[in-house]
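Please, is this right?
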Amino acid sequence: GAVVLVGGTLNAPAGHGTLTVREGHLALKIRKITLDHVRADVRLEGPRLILESFSATRGGTVTGHGRYDPNGWDLALTADRLVVLDDGVSHATAAGTLRLTVDAARRRADGTIRLTDVRLPLPSLSAPKAGPTKQAIASEVTVVGLAEPDGVPDTGAPSSPAPDWEGTVRIEVPRDAWAKGADGQIELAGAVDLRLAGTGLPGIEGEFRVLRGFYRLFGVKLDLESGVVRFSGIRELNPLIDITAQRKLDHYTLRVHAGGTARKPTVSFSSDPPLEQTEIVSLLATGKTTEQLTQGERSSLGRSVGSVVSSAAVGELRKALGRRVPVDTIDVETGEDGQSDARITVGKYVSEDVFVKYGQAFGSGAGSEMGIEWSISDKLTLETERRGDGNTGMDLFYTLKY
């Protein structure tokens, strides 16, 4: 409802009164977000507009207040588990505060936003999509970056350049943030500061850590040993990468290390005990050394092809199960011949700091196991495990960053 009295002149109208909105809908151009159950109380005081209260829902809630006058405007928002990303592929909810202030001298944004229930797609290297990779990346950067608004009305008056943006917005991502795909599942946590200065992308400073996960490269499962994606404050989406994955095979521990930057990554191989690079690659790809490949090349290649085909089928199974089973992680493994000794492992956060996983093996190694991980603090983690044979283990880990 509205009770408004308009006075002043045609060139400078002034309103007095109140405007009330109940059960409204608000469609935002950004990512086509629609807010439901909109409630707002507005007061008009001459040339000033006071937003006394505002609230809306999209999964969670967002509330706010603000004001507008001819010299500028400011808006303060508070979110609580508000769904900010949900396009059928990615998902995220947000909680926190954000304040925007715009006047003739400055445009400023400050706040802290905590993203939870984050689910992002994990690209597959075994089945790349058609089309030039650089163009695909450029398109994403354009979407994520700060685009100039269109459809600005022309008032006929000369316009002065808009002031630059300033301020800092902190983005925090706690545990239970996953990048998932048919080839792997990776859990990330961390925080970055978006430092606004001028136009274009803000300076990005902070890091995301790899907490757990795995990735399958050409049918070979690599467990993530450690990983950091670090932003050094530069104004581009090109973080430093320091990720190590490993695979244990017989008495070898094989490692793949990814370094460099996101745009110019480097890959190196190492092993324990030490092996030549070619031997490590051969073991990772086929499970055999180059000498063994020479002696039984045909049968080895046949098994490799069978493994790739089996991995593709298992990947489809993972995607199908992931859509139907209400867990955070699900992993389906096959035996060396792609058929026997299969294993299914599922995991879920029962609270923000407690992760529970359950595994069931089939075939000759049939049995079950259950584990619990409790993150007591950022540095202290307690892990317990109970196997199907009744054996129980407990470990206390202290992590020191240096």
Q: What stands out?
A: The radius of gyration is 27 Å.
